[in-house]
C-alpha cells in the first residue's frame, strides 16, 4: 500500500500494554498503516524488543498505568518526542482470577487499579492534550465478560464493565472537543495472557463459539485500527465485540 493510502498516515498513537499480545499486534498494524507508535508498557525488556521488531516508527516508553505521576510523565515525554498525540489505545490489562470466596482485597485492588484506574488516568492525560489540539481518538479495551460476567472473575469483570461505562460517559463529555471514544470487547483470543489455559479447556470453549475457534490478536487489531481512523468518524460511545459470535451463545 502506498503511503498516501495508509489510513493512519502521520498520526501519533499511544498504545498502553503495547509490548505483547493484542497491544503489540495493534502497534505493528498501526505502524504498517503509517502511524508513529508510542509503545507504553511496564515491561521494559519486552517493550524495547517490540519497538525494535516493529521498526523506526515505534518508540518504547516505560509506564505504570496505575500511577498518576508515571502516566503524566509518559504523556509529557511522548509529546516532547512526537509533538502531538492523536490516538490513545487503552490496552494495558492484567488477569488475577479467583472465586469470590477466595478473592482477597489486594488482588481485587490490583486488577481494578491497572484495568480501570489506568484507563481513567491515561484518558485524562491524553484528552487534555487532544483538547488543546482540537481533537483525537480514544479506544478502550473492554471484554465480552464485561457484558455477560464470568465465573471466577469478579475483579476482571468489574474492571471491564467499568470501562464500558466510562467509554459512554467520555463519548458524551469529550465529543464537544472533537474527541471520539469507543471500546473493543474481545472474546477468547490467543495471547500470552491466555497461554496457560489447558488445551482441553480451549477445545471446550471453542465449541461454544459459532466460528469454533479462538481469535488471533491481529483480528482484534484490525478493529482498533478502524476505530482509530477517520473511516469510523461517526462512531462514538460504542463497545464492539470481536468474539467469533460467542456473545450469541
Q: What is the gist of this entry?
A:
With 249 residues, this protein is of the alpha/beta class. The protein has 8 helices and 7 strands, in the order E-H-E-H-E-H-E-H-E-H-H-E-H-H-E.
Describe the protein's architecture and organization.
With 249 residues, the chain is an alpha/beta fold. The chain has a single domain (3-189, 216-241), classed as 3-Layer(aba) Sandwich (Rossmann fold). Helix content is 45%, strand content 15%. The chain has 8 helices and 7 strands, in the order E-H-E-H-E-H-E-H-E-H-H-E-H-H-E. The protein has helices at residues 21-32, 44-54, 68-82, 105-133, 145-148, 154-174, 199-207, 217-228, and strands spanning 12-16, 36-41, 58-62, 87-90, 136-141, 179-186, 239-242. A 7-stranded parallel sheet has the order 3-2-1-4-5-6-7, sandwiched between helices. Helix 1 links the parallel strand 1 and strand 2. It is globular, with a radius of gyration of 17 Å. The model has no long low-confidence stretch (mean pLDDT 95).
Amino acid at each position: 500500500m502506498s503511503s498516501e493510502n495508509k489510513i493512519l498516515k502521520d498520526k501519533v498513537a499511544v498504545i498502553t500494554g503495547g509490548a505483547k499480545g493484542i497491544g503489540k499486534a495493534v502497534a505493528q498494524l498501526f505502524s504498517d498503516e503509517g502511524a508513529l507508535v508510542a509503545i507504553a508498557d511496564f515491561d521494559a525488556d519486552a517493550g524495547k524488543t517490540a519497538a525494535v521488531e516493529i521498526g523506526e516508527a515505534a518508540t518504547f516508553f516505560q509506564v505504570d498505568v496505575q500511577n498518576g505521576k508515571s502516566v503524566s510523565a509518559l504523556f509529557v515525554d511522548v509529546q516532547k518526542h512526537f509533538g502531538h498525540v492523536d490516538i490513545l489505545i487503552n490496552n494495558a490489562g492484567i488477569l488475577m482470577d479467583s472465586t469470590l470466596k477466595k478473592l482477597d482485597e489486594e488482588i481485587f485492588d490490583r486488577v481494578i487499579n491497572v484495568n480501570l484506574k489506568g484507563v481513567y488516568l491515561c484518558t485524562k492525560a491524553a484528552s487534555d492534550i487532544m483538547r488543546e489540539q482540537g481533537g483525537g481518538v480514544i479506544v478502550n479495551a473492554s471484554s465480552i465478560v464485561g457484558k455477560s460476567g464470568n465465573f471466577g472473575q469478579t475483579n476482571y469483570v468489574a474492571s471491564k464493565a467499568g470501562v464500558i461505562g466510562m467509554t459512554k460517559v467520555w463519548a458524551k463529555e469529550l465529543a464537544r472537543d472533537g474527541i471520539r471514544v469507543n471500546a473493543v470487547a474481545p472474546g477468547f483470543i490467543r495471547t500470552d495472557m491466555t497461554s496457560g489455559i489447558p488445551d482441553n479447556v480451549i477445545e471446550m470453549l471453542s465449541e461454544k463459539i459459532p466460528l469454533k475457534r479462538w481469535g488471533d490478536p491481529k483480528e482484534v487489531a484490525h478493529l482498533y485500527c478502524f476505530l482509530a481512523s477517520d473511516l469510523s468518524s461517526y462512531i462514538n460511545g460504542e463497545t464492539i465485540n470481536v468474539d467469533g459470535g460467542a456473545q450469541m451463545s
